[in-house]
Amino acid sequence: MGEGSLILTTAEPHAVGGALVEQVDADGDGRPAVDAVLKALKRHGVGSVLIEGGGQVAASFIAADAVDALEWFRAPILLGGEGRPCVAALAMAQLSDAPRFRRLAVEPWAPTCGNVTSGPDRMFTGIVTDIGRVRSVRQTERDRRFEIATAWNPSTIDMGASISHSGVCLTVVERGDDWFAVEVSGETLSKTTLGAWTEGTGVNLERAARLGDEMGGHIVSGHVDGVGRVVSITPEGGSHRVVVEAPAPLHRYIAEKGSITVDGVSLTVNAVDGRTFDLNIIPHTWEATTLGTLSPDSAVNLEIDMLARYLARWQETA
Fold first, then answer.
1. What is the rounded CA–CA span in Å between residue 262 and residue 230?
2. Residue 218 CB contacts under 8 Å (≥ 6 apart), including other chains
3. pLDDT per position as a tens digit, 80-106
4. Phi, psi (5° rounding) for residue 254?
5. 22-40, pLDDT tens digit by residue?
6. Count of structural domains, the chain
7. Residue 21 lies in a domain
């Protein structure tokens, strides 16, 4: 490392080549605190920097309100990794063996998001923050309109905001004192459980996540892939073991210990047997979502893990 380089570290500084080494404060995880790094850079006359890193690094700088522009790049090859069950077995001995991606098509992130066409505000994590209730249902000339009662303060819900409704991304078109309204197309009604909604139906609600928010579950698009059927529910201690049957060919994308979204709730698959898969629902999730109201033969919205969908597509076309 040559002259003119600056190294910021939480450890005791020591000489490294001709670089200038400076100690900065650490954050709660022992890494250099972003605000301390920015102050040190300013002292040395650095007004702007290009930060390269993963989601955690990007989120740290976004949370510090220090980002003017964000660029997202997709790697052209898949190396595998231990962090995700569906790619853990893909680690390659040689780089030349790694699967390579080709751009086949470009699709909207979530077709059910009405007129929202771009931006990170359409991503969800499968962590439900309110159980809403359908307060009215009305058929319009174009779509079906639902008014949803919520414990959220409606003044904090922007017009046009994207909200996950039991796993379906819908756009807010109106709001009242304790409710907001969405309009649902016939296509969405026919391919999700929303076609059976009536007054009083409970709805798992989640606001769209933004870059820098805690990733409590997994990446969820709000685009339902199919409707599953509850086969059985068995109490086990304080939890409940729920067996769900997935429609073909959706079951091919569901893996043991992988992630799946059921009625908008991020869950881990315990086991897979043909077209059925097992879930273990802990007491908090059972009580804080509509999953606690399920019974055998209940229909549920399913969204498979996004990475599994693209891996399957790659295998089909490779």
1. 11
2. 125, 126, 259, 261, 266, 305
3. 554 444 455 555 666 676 666 665 555
4. -105, 125
5. 888 888 777 788 888 888 8
6. 3
7. yes
